[in-house]
Design a protein that fits this description.
Chains A, B, C, D: Keywords: Lyase, Magnesium, Metal-binding, Thiamine pyrophosphate. The structure is a homotetramer. The first copy, chain A, is α/β, with parallel strands linked by helices. Chain A contains 15 helices and 14 strands. In chain A, helix 3 packs parallel to helix 5, helix 7 packs across helix 8 and helix 7 runs parallel beside helix 15. Chains A and D meet through helix 10, helix 11 and helix 14 of A and helix 10, helix 11 and helix 14 of D.
Chain lengths: 388, 388, 388, 388
């Protein structure tokens, strides 16, 4: 029996449509609640019919494909900061969305919350309209309003122009970073090459710090419910379990479908021994360990040796550092899978190609990156809040 | 800001209306969820328009007045036992509704659940239709269906005839009990005289065992959210706190409104000292202690003395017995309120009249009843379940 | 099977004896742990043999009789403040003992802790010696030391002189307060007259604020394990339950033994309805309600009426005030016990005499005292701590 | 400040000594409480002076060296089953000691419990004597008794003869198993060769099922507090953390001291990634993975392939099976430590020798044993209880 479905109050839907119609700088945010509700079709229709810019949350990625022309992920900070009306579809104003507060948002931004849970409405912010109900059903209610009285947000508006320009410049900056030839590689180079080869229908599992955060901006999802990451609570150690679960599901439902599990080296350390399980049942998983010798930042092997010379590394190395040049790929070969030690873009392209082509064995690519590599410059510090 | 409201899925509403239309022996049950949702107007319209029999739960009493011609409380067991379609409006299938199971219900009865909480749908029974949403909003959705395609359940049906006959015979039996002249009085006599004098707009608070159960069948409510009893969890000791809270609310909102607090003697013992608070703030509360010298049953004073003669009452008296002829009214006079020791119908009439007339002081009527008094014969044992 | 007994390490006992021998201003504190361990005989021997001043904690009262010449309760603050060596026998440095910290104690006071629980040793303070073991067994170990090498603390020391003088002046101050003829009575007058008549072997139960604190200083215990009060956690509402339990024990073990339950009016309000239980089983309890119309302080009836004139007492009366002149004795007569409304020393003497003489019924004395009555001037505020 | 020490009651010590003197078949059990209390010297003196047989619990091993002539570990079941007096020194009657119940014990065996915790005395069994106190202090109290009135249990008694015979036959059976030449090796062969080379002062850490249970019987401890295993609650996953902690302690206190960590392959899977930490800080740990391809029992590689042929191994392999022939040693080499794949006694001897000789790197020996290998025949099933 499917779960019971509830809809929003008719008058509230009407009011929400009206607020959207009057928006100067509208933005839709698509959360994992929309994915769970199966709202992909209705949301796509709403976005395309009204020509509205949208932004997915980490696990809302793929509800509408990341490469949709109205997806403004590449201008995320800009979009959040200047929108005057934001509609949250099954997305909540937690730390991932900076709590809905300035300076990441306009102080007078109007939030419209679509959520299945009454207790979540009005958390953190005072919303302009609340739509309590199943996200799919409520999206259809909104569509009805825009069917009755059609309306489109003009693509030639200065808001759309701002967003498009920002996306262009951000994408250029990413591409610039991705094309750097210096070695070890940086995050963007790695993810650029990964993105190029990923099958459109694969599951993407990801956990880590920079690895998860930057990876999410480059690696695209095209299908709903095909991305699993550490999510709302940022729990490390879930990645390999997620990958195994996704592979078991895929095996029955869609044989041939691959699971790509993108792990930071520290994240991989939490449950790396699950590689034994992956090999035991020969699951169609490709593991990418993006290895910077630590959490956020590590040392290169020479600096590490230098430290040991001066005394006990226990004392001098920060606890976020891991052993430089760990050969995580051997944790895979230890159990009969394929392992690759990857230091250049060419090695990355080649080994990823082989891994995806070989459907008989799991594989692990241990991808060495610059230990001090970091994100491109950000407008805001992580977790920026007005009152901190 | 009022809480957000959700509605049921349109197709489910349509299906529910269709199940109701096809019912041979329909029944509506109105729970406290309907009271909280403010569904009184919509429910009354539905009941009257479709001519459907209804039953309130303890705290659903008054959503539609208890003396409404379509209220079948006086045929409660019969109504539950033979209905083929039951619509629950904010009422849940807990012990108060005998878990929705045979032999108290037909094995194939179709339940339609209207509830604000998804997790409550499908508890205990497999419902025919679930309507997830605010009870007031969902009732209006049902009304729309019956406005589009009007329908009435025939008052001349054999179901209505059965119910009317059973109500008649039950009411006659109650009246017969109420009119008994023997002393000490029985429960029905007491409640009959109380009911005769109660102001229509008073709050009724009640706790106890038989006192609460029988009192509920005789004392009528005419307004929603004006009855407070031990409710779903049957917690004893809440009565005087409820009465004080209701009195504080009434004082500001509707001066002159009275609170009638009907207590069993055992229930009163849990927090009887709150009489000091009532007197300290001179709250407009009339306390009725229906005193049978124990829980369910006690001893009369002579039997008690007899037991003491033969030894230590600690050893021989069951722990549910209380001291015979306790003068609870003196607990009220101790703090300056009025107290009445009531042994006859005449004394009851007179002292209640005085208490209601005197708006300057709280009062307590200690109403002595037959220690072995009990309910009239029941069709089922308490908490009957098929698998017990 | 009696619980297993452990003793302290021989060397620690030796060290403790040596610290005591070298004390300039020694003090023993006897806690309820000593009572539970049955250490009364050993402790009395130690006190008398070494001529050491001692102080009981609330439930340590009676381990050695309160009227023992070496009991320095009447100089409690002085004794705690200037002692240089303090031996705790089953007593813990919680709020009742002001956490063992200045300014209530010398900064360099040496504590010797005798306790059955290792985790309690060294709590709050760094003890000079810890004696882990059964309090009775450890006291005997100490006695052995003082048997081997006898030693006495000189009664003519300036410490004993200081303590004796302070006791004298405090006792004089109490007597002065007790003899005041003004009405309503004060706490000291009440407790003086109660103390005069109490049987030496009665149980004393007590709860309240000033009632418990002042009562404890005046009413004496002569037997171990015969005082029950709200104790370490100061939980109100336990008094009548304690009294009933003590009466049930006394009934079998020592018929004729009385239970005296001294209650503040607020404390009585927590479980006053238990009077019904007391009457039902005719328990040999004399209840004294020391009634000041509130918690710590109340209003007299005239001031209360004045407040009501100016508006709603709910708004103006502090929540610690109770209804003036409540007739708590009627809560007893309501259930057939004897009740006395007591306003003068003569009434108190007479009604207490009658209550103690009448072994056929429980009784309650509602003793009216001055609503603003308080303790005699104290050296320290309640719960004084150096860092507060 | 050292923790406070308590001693047992003198009379109880006397009674315990008397029960021991009158024992026909005495047995001492030395638990980890004895190790924590530092009772090694006193216990050794007691054992040798009175010539009493003793048995260590898993973490009591080494309090007296395992190769002491009075250690009857090799006749453990026999000793427990027929002893008439058992003295527990800091050992508790939990599942490891079969709850102290028949058929593993005589129904009328007399237990003497020495324990620091009163609540543990009398658990499961009714002891003959309880000695509440610090195990070291109480052992000394017992020694005093046997100093005052010397006593020895005769080595020529039939109980000592029985034990010596059983030890001889059990040791012969173990030696027989250890000397089997068939491959893959069995547990006894592996542990025999490990025991031969272990430094006397090393820490031994162990976790697993058969690996821990059988290993404990063969690998000897010579020093107190030098064995760490999954202990009372049998928690898997603690081994590598224990080993790292022991290595950190050893580094400072006794450089050159080695940590030997004996792991079952399943146990290693819980936290095998900690090998990275071991290598990062270059800790002096030798890891032995005793690999039978599963928990209790696994499959060999050929049987596993056979299963895969017939379908999905997910479906057919029991969940306790692990991937056959996993190369756990590569998990070590992945991080720069030394790894050995060991299939024969000769390889085991050689690689263990190299690992112990090389103080510059941690190492891991992946020791392949017969997947169906098990313990030698046991008198009782695991966790035998009379009432199961």
């Amino acid at each position: 029996m499917p779960p019971p479905v509830s809809m929003a109050e008719t008058s509230a839907v009407y009011m929400a449509a009206s607020v959207i119609r009057n928006a100067k700088r509208p933005l839709l945010i698509i959360g994992k609640g929309a994915a769970y509700a199966g709202a992909e079709e209705a949301l796509r229709k709403l976005v395309e019919q009204c020509k509205l810019p949208f932004l997915p949350t980490p696990m809302g990625k793929g509800v509408i494909p990341d490469n949709h022309p109205y997806c403004v992920s590449a201008a995320r900070s800009r979009a959040l900061q200047f929108a005057d009306v934001i509609v949250l579809f099954g997305a909540r104003l937690n730390w991932i969305l900076h709590f809905g507060l300035p300076p990441r948002y306009q102080p007078d931004v109007k939030f419209i919350q679509v959520d299945i849970c009454a207790e979540e409405l009005g958390n953190n912010v005072k919303p302009a309209v609340t739509l309590l109900g199943d996200t799919n059903a409520v999206t259809k209610q909104l569509l009805e309003q825009f069917d009755k009285t059609p309306w489109q947000y003009p693509l030639e508006s200065s808001w759309w122009q701002t967003l498009r320009e920002k996306m262009k410049s951000n994408e250029a900056a990413s591409k610039e970073l991705a094309s750097q030839k210096s070695l070890p590689m940086n995050y963007y180079t790695v993810f650029y090459h990964v993105q190029e080869q990923l099958p459109r229908d694969c599951f993407v599992v990801s956990e880590g710090a920079n690895t998860m955060d930057i990876g999410r901006t480059v690696i695209q999802n095209y299908l709903p419910r095909h991305r699993l990451d550490a999510g709302t609570f940022g729990t490390m150690g879930v990645g390999l379990g997620f990958a195994i679960a996704a592979a078991i599901v895929a095996k029955d439902r869609n044989p041939g479908q691959r699971v790509i599990c993108v792990e930071g080296d520290s994240a991989f350390g939490f449950s790396g021994m699950e590689v034994e399980t992956i090999c035991r049942y020969n699951l169609p998983i490709v593991l990418l360990v993006v290895n910077n010798n630590g959490i956020y930042q590590g040392f290169d092997a020479d600096s590490w040796k230098e430290m040991l010379k001066f005394g006990d590394a226990t004392a001098v190395a920060p606890p976020v550092c891991l052993l430089p040049n760990s050969h995580y790929e051997q944790v895979m070969t230890a159990f009969g899978g394929k392992g690759y030690f990857v230091q250049t873009p060419e090695e990355l392209q080649k080994s990823l190609k082989q891994s995806l082509a070989d459907t008989t064995k799991p594989s692990l690519l241990n991808i060495m990156i610059e230990p001090q590599a970091t994100r491109k410059a950000q407008d805001f510090h992580w977790l920026t809040r007005s009152n901190m």
